[in-house]
Specification:
The chain is of the alpha+beta class. The chain has helices spanning 2-13, 34-53, 77-82, and strands at residues 22-27, 65-71. The protein has one domain. The longest helix is centred in the middle third of the chain and has 20 residues, at 34-53. The protein is elongated, with a radius of gyration of 16 Å. The relative contact order is 0.23.
Length: 86
């Protein structure tokens, strides 16, 4: 939630960056955060697009999400730690 607000404020201050692709990258424990951040961005983008189609206006912008990269990410600890020997 806070990341979405931060990105909206960033793009409000620096609208020229809307022309560029937005990439999310995470490594290791970042695999816990990156999927949730990306999901939030995608849901907000979809909601904004639908609202615009129905004539609603907002100061929010569609974030130009392009790429998600997770390197050796810890996405599901229950699965990972079950295979680690005691």
């Amino acid at each position: 939630e806070k990341v979405g607000s931060l990105l909206q404020m960033f793009y409000a201050c620096f609208p020229d960056y809307l022309k560029l692709k937005f990439n999310v990258a995470a490594k290791s424990y970042g695999g816990q955060y990156a999927p949730n951040i990306v999901s939030r961005i995608m849901n907000e983008n979809q909601a904004l697009t639908r609202a615009t189609e129905f004539g609603f206006s907002s100061n929010a912008v569609v974030i130009p999400l392009s790429t998600v990269m997770i390197g050796n990410g810890l996405t599901d600890p229950h699965i990972w730690f079950a295979s680690v020997p005691d």
